[in-house]
Task: structure prediction
Amino acid sequence: MVELSSNFLHTSFILYLIAIVFLGGAIKQKKGINRNKDEKAPIAGKIGICITIAGFISQLGYFITRWIAAGHAPVSNMFEFVTFFSIMFVAGFILFYFLYRSVVLGLFTLPIVLLIIAYGSMFTKDITPLIPSLRSEWLTIHVMTVAAGEGILAISFVAGLIYLIKNIDHSKRTKKTVWLEVIIFGITTVLGFVIITSIFAMTGYKSEINWVNKEGQVEHYQYKLPPLLGPNEWELQTENRMEPLIELPAIIDAQKANTVVWSFLIGNVLYLLVRLITRKRVGQLLQPLVKNLDKDLLDEISYRSVLIGFPVFTLGGLIFAMIWAHIAWSRFWAWDPKEVWALVTWFFYAAFLHLRLSSGWHGEKSAWLAVIGFGIIMFNLIFVNLIIAGMHSYA
Amino acid sequence: MKNVKCECGHVNPLGTVICESCGRAVGENSKTNDLLDMRYEGTARRSQVRNQTIIDKIWNFFSSVKVGVVLIVLALIASAIGTIFPQEMNANLDKPANIYYEEKYGWFGKIYYLLGFHDLYSSWWYILLVASIGVSLVICSLDRAVPLYKALKKQRVPKHISFMKRQRFFNQKTVGNTEKLVVLAEELLKKSRYKVILDHGSLLAEKGRFSRWGPYVNHIGLIIFLIGVMLRFVPGFYVNEQLWVKEGETKVIPGTDMQYYLTNHKFLVEYYSEEDNEAYKNALEQKGAIVKNFQSNVTLYKASEKTLPGKNPELIKIKDDEIRVNKPLTVDSFSLFQASYKLNEISSMTLALTKKETGEEFGEITIDLTNPKDVYDLGNGYLVYLMSYFPDFVIKNGEPATNSPFPNNPAFAFKMVTPDKPEGEISFVAIQQNLEPMGENQYKMAFKNADFVNYTGLIVRKDLTLPIIAIGGAIFLIGVAQGSFWQHRRIWIKEDNGDLFIAGHTNKNWYGFMREIEKIFAGTEIPIPKDQGLEKEKKDTTNQGVDSVG
Amino acid sequence: MIILVLLATAISYTLYANFLQKNERVGAVGELAPDFVLKDLNGNEYQLSDYRGKGVFLNFWGTYCEPCKDEMPYMNKLYAEYKDQGVEILAINVGETDLAINTFASKYGIEFPIVVDVNGEVQHAYNIYPLPATFLVDSEGKIVKYYDKPMTEEMIREFMEQIKP
Result:
C-alpha cells in the first residue's frame, strides 16, 4: 500500500510535467481566452488542464492510499504536510481555472508545485506513528484546513508574480527588477537544495562528526552533505571524508547552516548559468510569455484568492488550531513561534485586504504584497518548523 | 452640521457627496464627469466632517483605515520579533532571565533581554498596541456602518441620469418599447434572485446587501474576542495551576478552592511496536522507542465540607477516569490536562542484613522512603536502626546532607545490632557506595530490591472567558465569510422617452458581475452595460492588442 | 464621547491588572494569613486561627535548607523568651519524612512546635517556593511581613517585637 501511494505521487509528478508542456503551448497560440469569454479555448490549453486534473486525481490517490496504510491522515510530518500542501495548491489553481479560465496561471503554478513536491520528498518518507499529542481528529481537521487556506493564498502569489513579470520595466536595472530577481533567486535556491540533497542522497553520503556544545558536552551530527561549515570543535569520525572548511561557534546549528549554504551555492550556480547563457534577467526572460495578458484580470485573481483564502486560513490556521491547542495543551494560545507566525500571516493578509480598499493599492503594489505574503507562509513552513525551537518543531 | 442643497431640492447633511434623494453629485464632485466614488453611498461620515475638538481629532485618528493598517503592521512586526529567541514563559529557564539570555545568546541576547523582548507579549506596549487596534475597530466601524446603514435603507429608486452615467457599469440605447423592456428586465432579474423595486419608470434590482455588513460583523467578532481576553484579568475568571501526583497519592486539586481531590491510581506509558502497523517498521528502527500513549488512571473526589489547607476532609467519590493528551478530565468549570510525567522515582528499598564472610542473611528490611522507620526488628536479637536518611545525598562541608526532599540519591546510616555484636556496627549505605566509618564491619546491609513509582504531571485550568472568546471567533468568521463570499450588486434601469438607461454597481468582483449581467440579459434588446472603469485604464496602456489571458 | 471614556477605562484596567499579576508572588502582606490545620509528629493538631490574640512567627523550613539550620538555634532561644510575651513560633516543615524531622529536632533540641505540611497545601496557600520563608502574623491574624533570606539573632528578635500583641 505504501508503495502504491508512492507510485501515485510519482505519476502525478510526471503528469504535471507533461501538463506544463501543453499549457505552454497554449500560450504560444496567439488566440487567447477573453475576459468576456465563451470563446473557444485553444485545444492545447484544454488538454493541459485535463492532464493537470488527472495529475491532481493521482495525487489524491497518493493521499488516500497513504492514509489507509498509515491509519491516520498523512499530514503528520514534514514530507506529508508539504506534499498535501502541494495538493491544495493545485486544487486552488483548479478552482480558479474554473472561475476565470486562466491557462497561464497554471503554466506558472505547476512548476512551483513540482518544486514543492520535490522539496517535500527530501524529508523522511517513513510512515511514523503518531505521538500522543497528535492522536486526535483535530490533526486531520486543523492541518487539512490550514493547508487548504494556504493553497488558495498561494494562487495570489502566482498571480502577483505574473503581474510583476509583466508589468515591471525590465529595460533598465531598478529596485523593482532587483527584487524580482531576488524572488526568482529564492526559488532557485530551493531548487538548489533539492538537487544537491538528491545527488548526495543517491551516493549515500554520510559523515559522522562529533562536536562540543555550549555546555561542554560532546554531541553528534550525521552530515548528509559535505561539511563546508563544521560545528564547534569538530572531530571527524568517519574516515576518508572531507573536513569542514569553516568552524562555527556552538550556538549555531552547523548542520542546518551547512545545508542552507549548499542550497545557496547551487542556487547561485543555477541562476548565474541562466543569466550568462541568456544574457537577460530571468524576469526579462519570462516577460514575452506574459506580454499579452490582461493585468486587471491578474489583479482580480490575486485579490479574489486572498478574499477566499483568508477566511479558510483563519478557520484552519487560527480557530481550529486554537481549539486543538486547548484540548491537547490546556491553553489555546501560548505565543509559540509557529502560532505567532500564523498570527503574523493573518495580520499581513488583513492589512492587505484593508489596503485594497484604497484603489491606489490595486495593481502592482498589490502584487508585491501578494508575493510577500507567500514569503511569510513559506517562512512559517520552513524556518519555523526546522530552525526555531518550539512545540511545533518538526523534521 | 451645515447642510448642502441639491439641484433637485433635497437638503443633504454637510459632507454628503451623492445626493440622498436623486443621486446627483453634490459639492465639488458635481463639476467633473469622473466616475462617482460610491464608497459608503457617498454619505456624510463623522470623521470626514467634524474636526474641531480634541474628541473629534481622536475619533478621526482611530477611524482612519490608514492608521488601522499601520497598527496592524506594527503588531505584525512586534509579534515576529518575539520569536527570535524563546520567550521567558515558554523556555523553562534554569537560571534567572537576566543571566540566561546573555549566557546563551551573547550580546544579542543581552540586548533582547534589556529591551524586554523576552517577555514581549505581556509587555505594556504590546498590550497597548493590541488595545489600540481594538479601539480602532470600534470607532472605524461606528463611523462607517451607521451612515451606510441609513443610506442603504432609505435609498430611493429613481436616480438622476447623471448618477447613472457616472457609474462604472453604464449603457444607454434608443429602443421603442422601453416599458415592455423594463417589465422584461424585472422578470429576468427576479429569476436571478434579485429584489426588484419599480418606481415611476425606474427600476432598482438589488442582491446581496447583507454582504456589506460582513466587515462590520467581523469587527464586532474581534471586539468580543478582545473583551474575552481582557476578562482574563478579572479575578475568578482564570485559573492555571500545576499538579503533580504520585501513584497511590491523593492530593487536593489546586485552584479549586480545596473543593476537589484527585487520586492517582496508576500512571502508564505505552510504546509503539511493529504489531500496531507494519508500516511503522522503518520509523521505529530509525527513532527507537516512540511513545504511543501515556495516561493517568484517576479517581476524582469532592470534599464533603469546606476545609482548610492541611486538613484531610472526608471525600465523596465523583468518578473514575483516564486522563490522556487530547482527553482532559472536566468537572464543574475546571479541566485537568495530561501535560507531563516523571517515571521511576524510587519509592522503597529492600536490604538484607548480611554477614560478610559467610554471605548468610538474617532478614530483610523494606524501607518506605516516604515514611522510614527508625528501627526494624528482625527477631532473634537482630535489629537494624536507621540513624539517618538522606533522600538526595550530597556531602556539604565534609558532612553528609541532603540536597532536596526528593529521593534522587537515597543514602542511609544504619546501626546493625546482632547477638554477637550487641553494641552495633555503623554502616553508611548509598547508591553504589558502602562506607564503614567506624572501621571494618562484620555485617553489611546488602541491597536487594527497589520499588518505583511514577508521577503524573497535570495542568489544572479554569477559563470562563473561553465561551466569550469562542463566540467572538465564530462571529468573526461569519463576518469574514459574509463579506468575502458574497457581493452586494445593484442594477438601475431607467426609461425616458424611448431611451433605455442601465447602470450597475457592486462592491466586489466586477468581473463576475459583468458575466452575470451578460447571462441574464442574453438574447434580449436590453443593452449590456459597458465597463467604463476598465476602458479608461485601457486607454492609458499601450500594446494591448487582444485582451487575452492566454 | 462616552465610548472613548469606556474604552480608556477598560484598557487602563487591563494594563493595571496585567502589571499586578506579574508582580504578585507571595501570600500578600496586609492580607489575612490563610488559615490551616497541620499535625505535629505526635499527631496533635495546630490551627492557625487558634492563635488569634497572639503574634505568630510562621517559619517554613526543610532539613536540606542551609540557612534554616543556622536559624534554628536562634529561634529556639527566642521562643522561650517571647512565649510569655504573647508571641509564638510555629515551624512548618515542607513535607519531609518523620525520621528526618525527628533527627533534626533532636540534634538541635527544638522546643517550639513543628508541624508537617504533608501535601504541600499550606505552601501553596502561602504561594511560596524558596526556603527559608518566614511570615510574621500579628495578633489579629494579618500578615505584616514576609522575609525570605537568612536571619540573624537580632533580626529574629526584632521580628518578634514587631508582632507582640
Notes: Chain C touches chain B through 43 residues (CB under 8 Å). The helical segments of chain C are 2-23, 66-83, 98-108, 121-125, 153-162. The CA atoms of residues 26 and 128 of chain C lie 6 Å apart.
